[in-house]
Amino acid sequence: MHFLVDASLPRATATSLSKLGYEATDVRDVGMGRSSDEDIAAYAKAKRLALLTRDFDFSDVRNYPPSAFFGIVVIDLPSWTSVDAVLDVINEALSQPDLVNQLSGSLLIVEAGRIRHRYR
After folding, report:
1. Maximum distance among all alpha carbons in the chain?
2. What is the pLDDT of residue 118?
3. 114 exposure class (CB count in 10 Å sphere: 0-12, 13-18, 19+)
4. CA angle at residue 50 from 41 to 100, to 5 degrees?
5. What is the pLDDT along the chain (120 residues), one digit of tens a residue?
6. Residue 120: what pLDDT?
7. b/e map of 58-70 (b: 16 or more CB within 10 Å)?
8. φ, ψ for residue 100 (rounded to 5)?
C-alpha cells in the first residue's frame, strides 16, 4: 500500500507509515503542499495512491466518491491534538491488515477509539 500524505498531517506521518511497512509520499515533498483538494485528489488517483488526510472535505462522497480512489483515510481529531497522539491514532488504524486490505474504493474516518468504514 502506498499513501499520499496530505499537508494537514504532521511531517512525521510518512516516516511512521514506513515503520508499518507502507510506502508514503508527502504532498510537500512533491511540490503540492499548497495545492487544492481537487489537485491532490487527482494526483492520488493518477498515481494510484491511498489518500491520508485530516481535511474533512475529502469525506464528502459526493465530491470524492470512494469508488474512484484507491482509498481515502480521514483522521478526525480536534485541532489541538498533539503530533504524537495523531500518529498514534494513525498507527493504530493502519496496523490492522484486514482494514487496510479493504481500503481500495473505501472511505475510512478514523477517530480516537473508533473507525467508520464506508464501502464503495
Report:
1. 33
2. 83
3. exposed
4. 155
5. 999 999 999 999 999 999 999 999 999 999 999 999 999 999 999 999 999 999 999 999 999 999 999 999 999 999 999 999 999 999 999 999 999 999 999 999 999 999 998 876
6. 61
7. bbeeeebebeebb
8. -65, -40
Q: Which three cell numbers stand for residue 17?
A: 507509515
How many other β-carbons are positioned within 10 Å of the β-carbon of residue 72? 26
In single-letter form, the type of residue at position 107 comes to L
As a whole number of angstroms, the distance between CA 33 and CA 19 comes to 23
Cell match 483515510: residue? 73
Distance of alpha carbon 84 from alpha carbon 99, whole angstroms: 22
DSSP code, position 29 = G
